[in-house]
Design goal:
The structure holds 2 protein chains of 2 kinds.
Chain A lengths: L1 H15 L3 H28 L3 E2 L2 E2 L3 E4 L2 E4 L4 H8 L1 H34 L5 H9 L6 H12 L4 H8 L13 H25 L4 H8 L4 H12 L1 H16 L3 H6 L7 H11 L3 H33 L2
Antiparallel strand pairs in A: 1-2, 3-4
Chain B lengths: L16 E10 L2 E11 L4 E5 L6 H9 L6 E6 L2 E2 L10 E4 L11 H11 L4 H14 L15 H13 L5 E5 L7 H18 L2 E6 L2 H7 L2 E6 L2 E6 L1 H6 L4 H6 L4 E10 L4 E5 L3 E4 L10 E6 L4 E4 L18 E11 L3 E8 L4 E7 L14 E6 L5 E3 L2
Parallel strand pairs in B: 3-8, 3-9, 6-7, 7-8
Antiparallel strand pairs in B: 1-2, 1-4, 4-5, 9-10, 11-12, 11-14, 12-13, 14-20, 15-19, 16-17, 16-19, 17-18
Helix pairs in contact in B: 2-3, 2-4, 3-4
Chain lengths: 308, 381
């Protein structure tokens, strides 16, 4: 291992000079700094700034021999005063969690059979998973509006077949919202699960059968635990964007489905209260960073275990 | 254990494992072609062959991972062909072990016991016993990737023995170990298997492994078992050209039967006339192969003395002259490649008994090669 690292070093040194590694690591670092950390710091600064008609007060000012640090945490306090924010956060997390659970339930068997299908058929099946991305996301969400509306395709068919006497209210309910979210995000669950399941050593299942496990027991005792990192990766990929999702709730959600993305929009563009909007955003990022940190910890553990 | 007495007691007891005319076809290819085999209780039987000979398919049919196209497998009199792998009293040690990477050594060994619903305290007892057997008690909390190759092999063995199977299957049991460790482990493995007293079928492509571990060997090629016998039988009296060539090194002379008597035969080949001091099932004029192992040949620079021969009848037979074309000094012995005057090249091994060999032969030397009529094997197929 050390010998390998050393030989890599010499290759770097020969072709890229002594700074080669720093260049390689530096490029994504600078990218993340510019597009993530810097905007986030700007947002954070706004969230603790005093708003004076059209411009923000500086955090630090020097006037009349006085250094003033104006750190306005009032926005964060008012987040706790109005139950609206708490409700919106809670409902966002709830809807994201439900979406993630349903995505997992749909994606796991899908990814499983994809991974176990004949190797020559897998690329075509994978293409089918990614096929929806070829049309605009907005169009596809609008299409669900047509399907789920009171006079939409599903209701018309149900009435025509005599399954229902009057249209079922599906649009602008939690149901339509979750349908739209699951539909949009299920590929993000399938792909990491597939990548994980396709790598699995099938002899482990044979070993389990050999030791007296039924196929069902072998699945729960061997396949599922071994695909844990895939389940975590897929769940994070679905859960995190779902919490902050704005477009799908706007199009398919209703009065019962208040989500934090909508509150954010209202603060920015309805109330024009940028500091308040910024603090809502900062708290949301905080809510996402915690599960992400947990996820990274899990990933590190499972990759070190896989290095056998 | 009561059955153990029946081992070797002869024909009155049915063999423990009976494989009857088993056939496995993949599409139109016969992977296993009408193999019949009887294995006694307590035996370690090795299926030996190169890759693709059908040995692994046969093993997988015993384990239940492949269904035979036709034929029967009887274990202690019961036909097991229709049983799923998890219903068979058979456990397998997989090639490169297939240990569960997410479970500890302890949980790997306990896995099968949990599945059969054994009470907790009994599982505890059995796993402890198994880990003691393979001397891995201190490692019970480790994950497989934290163990060395030899330790993983022992975990795999403990796991496959934990359920006290009636039949143990070993798939290339030591294939993943390096050469030095393999030799030591071979005997260790046999010790443990004999200690437990389990009947064992192993599959290997390594003849040394088969010879060291097995009580009997079946040599397989193209889906058929060519010869079954004890290691010495297979080596010293191969029944066909393939077996003679596959096991160890051999010099083959192509010839014709010239004299066919009940107590001896003479076979003429391009290089020499062979005197064989036993009768064969053949006729005069028949084309046969004569096989002589390199270590059974003598090599010297002087002419062959009549007094050295096994019997006066052999004088003038079983000898040839040639030139040393190549030699490989291996320490304990030297292998000479001798180009005979008749045209073929034979390999002769010479034990280096003295530190500074008196007859130091080298490249280009003209030598005499000779052997005994009783060491010759005549192969008719």
């Amino acid at each position: 291992m050390t010998a390998l690292a050393r030989s890599n070093n010499t290759i770097y040194a020969r072709f890229m000079g002594p700074w080669g590694r720093y260049v390689v690591i530096g490029v994504p670092m600078v990218f993340l700094l510019l597009v993530f950390l810097l905007p986030f710091l700007v947002v954070f600064k706004i969230s603790v700034s005093e708003m004076e008609t059209v411009y923000f007060k500086d955090l630090l000012s020097v006037k009349d021999d006085l250094v003033v640090l104006a750190f306005k945490y009032g926005n964060y306090i008012s987040l706790t005063h109005d139950a609206l924010y708490f409700k919106a956060y809670l409902s966002s997390i709830k809807i994201a969690a439900i979406t993630t659970a349903i995505c997992l339930a749909i994606a796991y068997p899908f990814a499983y059979f994809l991974a176990r299908s004949p190797a020559e058929r897998r690329p075509a099946l994978l293409m089918l998973v990614m096929l929806p991305f070829w049309t605009s996301f907005l169009l596809r969400v609008y299409a669900w509006k047509m399907l789920l509306a009171d006079a939409g395709v599903f209701n018309n068919v149900a009435i025509a077949l005599g399954l229902a006497s009057e249209p079922l209210k599906m649009m602008n309910t939690p149901f339509s919202l979750v349908v739209g979210m699951v539909y949009t995000y299920v590929p993000f669950m399938i792909l990491p699960l597939y990548a994980n399941l396709v790598k699995m050593d099938l002899r482990l299942l044979e070993a389990a059968l050999d030791l007296g496990a039924t196929p069902w027991q072998a699945f729960w005792r061997i396949t599922v635990p071994l695909s844990k990192s895939g389940i975590i990766a897929g769940s994070m990929l679905v859960f995190i964007p779902c919490v902050g999702e704005f477009v799908i709730p706007e199009l398919l959600g209703g009065p019962e489905t208040l989500m934090i993305g909508h509150v954010l929009w209202d603060e920015f563009f309805g109330n024009n209260d940028w500091p308040m909007a910024a603090s809502v955003a900062v708290v949301m990022v905080g809510l996402i960073i915690i599960p992400l940190a947990l996820f990274n910890k899990y990933q590190a553990e499972s990759t070190s275990a896989a290095k056998s | 254990m009561a059955h153990k007495d029946s081992k070797g007691s002869g024909g009155d007891v049915a063999p423990f494992l009976q494989i009857k005319r088993i056939v496995k076809k993949f599409d139109d290819v016969f992977a296993v072609d009408e193999v019949s085999l009887d294995i006694a209780q307590g035996e370690i039987f090795a299926l030996l062959g190169s890759s693709g000979c059908g040995k692994s398919t046969l093993l997988r049919m015993l384990a239940g991972f492949e269904a035979p196209t036709s034929g029967q497998i009887l274990l202690a009199g019961q036909d097991i062909v229709g049983l799923a792998p998890y219903e068979r009293p058979i456990n397998m040690m997989f090639q490169s072990y297939a240990l569960f990477p997410h479970l500890t050594v302890w949980d790997n060994v306990a896995f099968g016991l949990h599945r059969e619903g054994m009470p907790k305290n009994q599982i505890e007892e059995r796993v402890t016993q198994m880990l003691d057997l393979v001397q891995l008690k201190p490692y019970s909390k480790r994950k497989p990737h934290q163990l060395s190759g030899g330790q993983q092999q022992r975990v795999a063995l403990a796991r496959s023995l934990a359920k006290r199977p009636k039949l143990l299957l070993l798939d290339e049991p030591l294939g993943a170990l390096d050469a030095k460790l393999r030799q030591r482990t071979q005997l260790e493995l046999v010790d443990i298997i004999e200690q437990v007293g389990v009947t064992c079928v192993m599959v290997t492509h390594d003849q040394e492994e088969a010879m060291t571990m097995a009580t009997r060997i079946g040599v397989m090629s193209e889906g058929k078992i060519l010869q079954i016998g004890q290691p010495a039988e297979i080596y010293e009296t191969p029944n066909c050209l393939f077996v003679a060539d596959f096991i160890g090194t051999v010099n083959i002379f192509k010839g014709q039967v010239e004299v066919d008597e009940p107590d001896h035969v003479v076979i003429a080949s391009a290089d020499c006339k062979h005197y064989v001091s036993h009768g064969i099932t053949g006729t005069r004029g028949m084309g046969v192969h004569v096989a002589v192992r390199p270590e059974k040949m003598s090599i010297q620079t002087e002419t062959v003395q009549d007094a050295d021969r096994e019997s006066p009848a052999e004088v003038g037979f079983n000898q040839a002259q040639g030139v040393i074309e190549d030699l490989a000094y291996l320490g304990s012995l030297t292998t000479y490649h001798v180009r005979l005057d008749g045209g073929s090249v034979v390999k002769v091994t010479h034990t280096n008994a003295a530190r500074h060999g008196s007859s130091a032969m080298t490249w280009g030397d003209r030598v005499y090669v000779w052997w005994c009529g009783s060491d010759v094997v005549v192969l008719t197929r």
